[in-house]
Amino acid sequence: MSQAQRRIRESAAVAPGEHAPTLPDPDKLAHARASLPDTTRTDYLCGRGPEATLDHLLDDIVPGLNGQNRSGRYWGFVTGSTLPIAEAADNIVSAYDQNVQVHLPSQTIATEVEDAALTMLLRLLRLGEPEQWEGRTFTTGATGSNILGLACGREAVITARVTNGSESVGELGLLRACVKAGIEEIQVLTSMGHSSLSKAASVVGLGRASVKLLPFSDAEPWCLDIDAVERELQRENVASIIAISAGEVNTGRFATAGLEDMKRLRRLADQYRAWIHVDGAFGVFARVLPEKEEYAPLLAATAGLELCDSLTIDGHKFLNVPYDNGIFFTRKASTLNDVFKNPNAAYLSSGAASTIQSPLNIGLENSRRFRALPVYAVLMSEGKQGMSRMMEKMVLTARAVARAIRSCGDEYVLLPDDESTASDENVHMVVLFRARDDGLNSVLVQRINEGNEWYVSGSSWDGKPAVRVAVSSWRADAEDAFDVVKKSLGAIARAYKESQE
Ligand SMILES: *Cc1c(COP(=O)(O)O)cnc(C)c1O
After folding, report:
1. Interhelix angle for 195-203 vs 142-159, to 10°?
2. Which atom of ligand 1 is nearest to the CA of 246?
3. DSSP state of 361
4. What is the pLDDT of residues 283-317, one digit of tens each?
5. What is the dihedral of CA 183, 185, 189, 194, to 10 degrees?
6. Could you tell me the domains of the chain?
7. Ligand 1 pocket by C-beta < 6 Å: which residues?
8. Is the separation of the CB atoms in 195 and 181 below 8 Å?
């Protein structure tokens, strides 16, 4: 097995300047599928031993995997990829298999590394001092983190309305707490909130129907209509959580325009006892871009996010650590504790008075992976400057893709089709576009992905199919992206025209 690491690395290696295919060869995918054990055979579960199994994994399964980490042009979803130092750290995580659930400072450094990583992130993202974010933890992703956010919001907006103020929803349960507080409805106010927000609303008992979209306009549906928020907050016997999309996953745009919007929302939330949750899964990283004019709109749009009550961040996207990795921040450790306390398990107590809480009392999981280590490693390795450069590279690559699309002439159109996409400055890391010809547009995603040079997601805009490019890999390369996209889109349009003649 000592050879295993070397063999894995060799199989996953990509030569400098090269791009791995975005999708597996269809034959290899079929072969991988056929190699899975046949449940009807009597020797179905006979052990093959580690050596034969490693051969099976590398020879049969691996060729059936996609290139999302290895390509640099896998621009589907928002997948991130894995920096080599993060992969190394993740191997240490497996090799040492720590269970990071109880803070045991005399027995392992793991919880302190986790806290150091969280504190470094606060500094990197200019969110304020660690004492202002006592509630902080790692979880599985932005979905998990949004669940934490809505759970904390639910806890806070209800207890604020219970007369003696000391009873927690975690203790009473949602129904009894709402009756005591005279609450008839809890609503989640947002604009183009990520789909996982509705999932989170369901999980924490608010219901998917509690998510209310308050778009500023048809032209800018990602923008939150703050006047509408104010009206909603005034409803009698209704408690509200304001969920800010920073940014929105189809367009990369932001729900708030900057500091003034956030200040106004903060005032409103305080006045009406509402909670502000920011879903900054990928968008919050725009705050690490260098202070250059070309990034001014992105820096402005992400200003003021630090005024929220809770914040979701994804590690496995822009931070380029392996799946799965999510981060959550909130103001008070006690809010997390009211919801996630794992009571009456004396054998799990750390017995230590410390600012670091046992993770099992402040998050969803009890047993947990040492997810913090790859984040710690990336931040140690790259520092502020390295992170800033990496973000810049991703934004420049998305802008190169947008320019390539514009340079194709009339065939394709950037979305939204208005002056905001006519220049680069609003392009963050997502590029949305479509073909003008409906016929070509209906097969565009398929044609691009078949080419196996770049990979995109299908989306929709204004009720019509659209193509979404999301750049989130450290391998992003603006010049290469421009050339590949321009050439590929030109060829696809020509081939389509010929097929119509
Ligand atoms: C990706 C994403 C999510 C969901 O995150 P997972 O890490 O897939 O759980 C939530 N919100 C936003 C804005 C996202 O981009």
Report:
1. 50
2. 13
3. G
4. 999 999 999 999 999 999 999 999 999 999 999 99
5. 120
6. 19-65 (no CATH), 93-378 (3.40.640.10), 385-500 (3.90.1150.10)
7. 78, 141-143, 194, 196, 249, 279, 281-282, 314, 326
8. no
